[in-house]
Design a protein that fits this description.
With 275 residues, the chain is an alpha+beta fold. The protein is built from 11 helices and 9 strands. Bound molecules: flavin-adenine dinucleotide.
Length: 275
């Protein structure tokens, strides 16, 4: 019993972390190199099929990668026990790749372990060929254990207030950690402005009351997405896919509460219980 408690929980600076037995691979792909490869492959192809079999191989590989540089949107792939996210950063200079997979005991215990491009490719064996083609181009691969942090009930201590990951670290499955930290800052500034320098204590209480429900809700939604993204084939997976195909869960009314929220408008009510 004592051993299992040790394996599943960590206490770091007074914060309780619960193991989720998943790991995160982080990698980047330089798009300039990718585009160069594609141009090279196109040139080989234009050179003629009769010279060698290389253009055939090149054109197949090119088809598997061309879509990556042709689209700028963030892309998520779901599969049993894992998911894969990629999106452009630095104005399209790099493709950032985040891959969530079941973790090993070693990762759980060490938090971070060195990883290779091949580890990343192997983690998605059997997936669509385009995933392998993309992952084989990944550079600077790292692997971290992922933990869920139990809600921290204390955001304030006198005139000291926490914001951001310090009080509501969340799994990156709603892409909201930094966004919520920025919202905290906007709300905190508005509360301090409203109450003035003579009433900092009540401004901080107001800040906490406004921010805690929303940040907590997003922590919980992020955690729930671990289950939703990682479904095995079956009725639940089919229901999820059907819902996504209808765009039901990304319709404007469904996501307004999240993206149209004005964090500096202090009159805004707590978020609705369901989206
Ligand atoms: C893979 C991944 C993908 C993510 N994707 C998204 C996304 O798409 N959208 C999104 O909104 N969020 C995303 N996040 C979450 C986001 O990165 C964090 O929520 C955000 O960085 C938290 O900001 P913060 O300022 O609270 O904390 P941090 O970014 O951790 O900043 C804290 C800073 O304090 C410094 N520090 C620590 N201790 C001390 C000390 N004693 N003295 C001085 N300085 C100190 C640290 O070095 C650090 O620079 C993602 C996270 C991960 C891991």
């Amino acid at each position: 019993m004592r051993l299992s408690v040790r394996l599943n929980f960590s206490l770091v600076a007074g914060v309780t972390l619960v193991s989720l037995a998943i790991a995160l691979y982080q990698a980047q792909i330089e798009t300039r190199g990718l585009k160069r490869d594609l141009e090279h492959q196109a040139a080989l192809l234009a050179d003629g099929l009769e010279k060698s079999a290389a253009p055939l191989v090149a054109s197949q590989s090119g088809r598997q990668l061309k879509w990556l540089v042709d689209r700028f949107q963030s892309t998520i792939w779901y599969g049993p026990d894992r998911h894969l996210v990629h999106y452009m950063i630095r104005g399209g200079e790099y493709l950032n790749v985040v891959a969530i997979v079941p973790s090993t005991g070693e990762v759980e215990q060490r938090w971070t372990v060195p990883a290779t491009t091949q580890d990343l490719v192997d983690a998605f064996a059997g997936w669509d060929d385009r995933a392998a083609a993309m992952l084989s181009k990944a550079e600077d691969v790292s692997c971290w254990a992922m933990y869920y942090r139990l809600r921290d009930p204390i955001w304030l201590d006198g005139r000291v207030a926490l914001l951001g990951d310090a009080c509501h670290a969340m799994l990156p499955f709603m892409a909201q950690g930094a966004a919520q930290s920025i919202e905290d800052g906007a709300t905190l500034a508005a509360c301090l402005r409203e109450r003035g320098a003579s009433d900092v204590a009540s401004a901080l209480l107001r800040y906490e009351a406004l921010r805690l429900p929303r940040a907590t809700r997003l922590q919980e939604m992020s955690r729930a997405n671990k289950t939703r993204f990682h479904l095995h084939d079956g009725p639940a997976q089919q229901a999820r896919d059907a819902q996504m195909a209808e765009r039901g869960d990304r319709s404007i009314p469904a996501i307004r509460w999240l993206y149209a929220h004005d964090a500096s408008a202090l009159g805004s009510a707590a978020p609705p219980a369901t989206s």
